[in-house]
Structure formats: C-alpha cells, structure tokens
Amino acid sequence: MDVQTFLSERRTQNILSAIEKGLQRTSNSFTAELAQYRNTSWEALKKRTLEKHRGVMSGDMMGRENVGPVGQFEAFGKSR
C-alpha cells in the first residue's frame, strides 16, 4: 500500500468517525430534550388534574367567590 492510498483511507475513516460521533451527540441531545418535555408535560398534566379534582384555585380564579368544584357546594349542609 502506498502513502497516498493510506492517507486517503485514513481521511475517509476520520470523516466517517466524525459523522458517527455527530449522529450520536444529536441522538443523545434529542433523547434528553424528549425526556425533559415528557417530564414537564407530566408535571403540567398532574397540576391540571389536581386543580380539577381537588378544587385548587388557579391564579386566574382567585378573585371569584365560590367558583370551582368545591366552592359551589360550600353552603351545602349549613343551617339557615
């Protein structure tokens, strides 16, 4: 094998190696972003579910009286 062929093959190997490493970094980055989105999405879903089913008032409902699943039954059972 002559020097020119050796250098050409070495260059090709280096290029392929760089492409492979770049693909691996991109894949790892995508997986991390997906995991973060999934966790964020899960936390938002959990918060909405708790607000809906436990009657927790969100910030936009704070000024209203007796709004929400629990507030509408607040007077239930009270004596007149």
Reconstruct the topology from this structure.
Elements: H1 3-54
Detailed description of the structure:
By secondary structure, the protein is mainly alpha-helical. The chain has a domain at 1-52. The protein is 65% helix and 0% strand. The chain is built from one helix and no strands. It has one helix spanning 3-54. The longest helix is centred in the middle third of the chain and has 52 residues, at 3-54. The radius of gyration is 30 Å and the shape is rod-shaped.
Element order: H for helix, E for strand = H
Instruction: Give the total of beta strands.
Output: 0
- Integer average pLDDT: 77
Q: Quote the beta fraction.
A: under 5%
- Uncertain ranges: 60-66
Write a concise synopsis of the structure shown.
This protein is an all-alpha fold and 80 residues long.
Features:
single chain; mainly alpha; rod-shaped; 80 residues; 65% helix
